[in-house]
Each structure stands twice: as C-alpha cells, then as structure tokens.
Amino acid sequence: MNVATLREGISYQGGLLALFSTVTAAALVIAAVYTSPAIHVAEQHDLETSLAQVLPQGYNDNNLLQDVVHVKDADGVDVEVHRASKAGALKAAVFTTSSSGYAGPIVILVGISRDGVVQGVRVLRHNETPGLGDKIDEAKTNWIHAFEGKALATAKWLVKKDGGDFDQFAGATITPRAVVKAVKEALEFHQAHLDAIYASK
Amino acid sequence: MKAREIIRNGLWDQNVVLAQILGMCPTMALTSSASNGLGMGLATTAVLVVSNMAVSSVRKVVTEQVRIPVFIAIIATIVTLVDMSLNAWMHELYKVLGLYIALIVANCAILGRAEAFACKNGVVDSALDGLFMGLGFTAVLTTIGIVREVVGSGTVFSQASLLLGPHFAFLETTVIPGYGGTLMMILPPGGFLTLGLLLAVKKRIEIRQRNAGVAVVSVPSHCGA
User: Fold this and answer.
1) pLDDT tens, position by position, A48-73
2) Nearest CA to CA, how far is B74 from chain A (Å)?
3) Cβ A27–B153 below 8 Å, yes or no?
4) I want to staple B146 with a disulfide (CB 3.0 to 4.6 A). Which of A30, B34, B46, B106 is the partner?
5) When comparing pLDDT for A125 and B117, which is higher?
6) What is the mean pLDDT of residues A149-172?
7) What are the pLDDT digits (tens) for B129-159?
8) Is residue A27 less than 8 Å (CB to CB) from chain B?
9) Is the CB of residue A141 less than 8 Å away from at least one CB of chain B?
10) What is the pLDDT of residue A171?
C-alpha cells in the first residue's frame, strides 16, 4: 500500500486527529504545571494590593489575606471579612459588598475602622455605561474618595439630588445612588456585627 | 510568493479588516479607545505569527479532510499557552490584555490565514504573512480606536502607559480639553460607523487607482485545495 492511499484511509485521519489531540493536550498540561505556581503567587499579590488600597498606608502590620473571619449578614449570606491589626490589636475590617447599579451588580470593597469610620472604598466590578456611570471607578475620577472619613452618624447617606451629602453625575444618578447605598449597608453590617467581626480567635 | 507582495497584501490589498472583513468581533468590541485597539492588535499579531508557522510546518502531514479540527486545536493551544504564560510571568500586562487574549481564539482571521496561506506555503513565508496580516489588523484597530476615542471622549491613547509601560505615557493626550464626550462613539454604533467610513475611504482610493490605470491586484483569499 503506498502513502497516497494510506493517507485517504479513515485510520490515517483518525490517527492524525488522535495524535494532534494528544500533543496539544500534553502541551497544555505541561504549561499548566509550570505556570500555575507563578499565577497563584501573582493572584495572591493582586488580592493583597487591592485589599490594602482601602486602608491608609501603614495602617496595619498584618497580612490581610491570613486574618479572615466569616460572618453571616441579615440575609444569611456568608461575608468574608479580612481583619487589619497593628501590634496585635484589631483595628479595621475589609470586605466586599454589592448593590444593583444601572446595568447589573456593582461590587465594591470597603475598609471600615473599628469605630465605624470609612477608611476607603474601591469599585471592583461594574457594567455601568462608559463615560457616564463609570466615574465611580478610581481610575476615571476621584469621586470614590468622598466616602473616606465618613461614618453612619456624620453624613447623610444619600446623593445630593435626594437630599444627601454625595455628588451624583450629570446624566447618571442611579449608579452613584447604588454605590452610596452599598457603602451605607456595609457600615450598617459592620455596626451590627462588631462582636462577631472583632472576636478574638 | 514574493515578500513584497506578502507585505502589501497584509497591510493593504488583503487587509484582514478592510478587505477580508474578518475578525469583526474584536474590531467592534475592543476599539473604544486607541490603546485597546493597539493592545488587541499586537496580541493577535503574536498569535498569528506562531499559529501560521505551526500550521505551515505540519501542512504536509495533515490531510484535507481533517485539517479544520487540527488547525483549530493548534490555534486554541497556542492562544491558551500565551494566556497562561502572560498570566504567570507578565502579570501586569496580563491585567490589561487578559480579557482580549481568550477572544483571539474566536477571531476567524487566524483560522482564515491558516486556511488561505499557511497550509499552502513554507514556514518563513507563513511567518511573514502572519506578521504583516497582524500588523495590518493592528493598524486598522488602532485607527478605529483613535477616531472613536477622539470623537467619543476627546482623548487619544489614554491609559497607554498601562499597556506599553510608563515610557509611553507621552502618548496620552487630551485632544479636546473639557469635552463632555459623545457616548454613541464609545458604544457599539461608533464601531460600525467608523468601520463603514474606513471601508469607504479604502474603496475610494482603489477606484482612483483604477481610473489612473494602476492594476489592482486581487488575490483569492480561500483555500482552493
């Protein structure tokens, strides 16, 4: 049997596909084994930097990733709270929360000190309209810094249009309203679960 | 095929976007700013060069009947390898490009070049074809990005330093200070409008050339196996 007829045979085709699947799969497995430790390190580092963003520099001396407590909120949903401490004393809590924006959920990360003052807020994920609602993103404007230093009692937690303390954007009220609501709920959650969050392990 | 012809085909005559109308998904989705267009274009170019070389080097072994699944497996593997290595070793860049990398698999321009060129030509020619098809794609994506960004938000190459490193921060310019923006150009309609205008411009230049007596080379773009 010569090569030309062999090539037309179904076994050649099948064998060829099998060979290529094996080679490509093997290449992927090898690459995955080599890259996964580095990817894990990079992702942990990412998480650590994003957690540190919502606390003032030098605020804590512990690794936020390692001091974690789980607290159930009013709806029974488990919230992962990272605790910041300095010289062994618990000082602040960092956790994510979300509320519905104009186009889907807005996920935010908040840092709140033990006495209930907002230390920092960052938007982690959103699908708001580019150019209008995306001003909540720290990369676009510094609007998100307006929350720093505010506590439940020291601010009216509404946008200015609704009689509160926080600016809305021209053409976009729903988005800032949702963020203000999310931060306020984070503060309420923090206040309601002080004991659980700062319980010594 | 002569190198000059390959280069000319990639950049103009057979340009992925303007002549073959391939890769429309990234062309529409990732050109809302010049930096995004440039990033997607460069990532695609890298994959295109490697996949063209890989396809070309196995072209004598692979039969016509099973070539499509084999090429797809090769392309998907290369894209995944690029994705994983960027994530592991160039994590800062990955945070900017990560979203685009996985989309490259769905860019039919890659399979298109494997079919139209790499399965019929040598490894060196295929690499050259991949490089210039990719650069042509990059040029068009960046152009659409510049137009949409200037009209849409009054800036050019904003956040270029995230993509190319701090040395390229000088690219970030505000063309129209205090400009409120034209939302439509940032949203999908802006992509269609800009692409339509570019196609019209290319057509006009070609008609001019034809009237001036310059022969417009037309190369069939399908695998006539």
Assistant:
1) 888 888 888 888 888 888 888 888 88
2) 7
3) no
4) B34
5) B117
6) 87
7) 999 999 999 999 999 999 999 998 888 888 7
8) yes
9) no
10) 76
Determine the distance in angstroms separating the CA of A34 from the nearest CA of chain B, rounded to an integer.
9
- Which residues, 6+ apart, have CB-to-CB distance to A84 below 8 Å? A55, A59, A60, A62, A64, A67, A90, A91, A92, A93, A94, A111
Per-residue model confidence (pLDDT) at position B186: 83
ipTM over 0.90 threshold: no
Q: What DSSP designation does B11 have?
A: I
Q: What's chain B's length in residues?
A: 225
Tell me A158's DSSP state.
Answer: S
Residues of B in contact with A139 (CB under 8 A): 159
Average pLDDT over residues A164-190: 89
Q: Is the dihedral of CA A111, A117, A123, A126 positive or negative?
A: positive
> Which residues of chain A from 96 to 115 reach within 8 Å of chain B, CB to CB?
none
Closest A-chain CA to B77: A24
CA A33 to chain centre: 27
| CB B156 within 8 Å of CB B143 | no
* Chain A residues near residue B65 by CB distance under 8 angstroms: 13
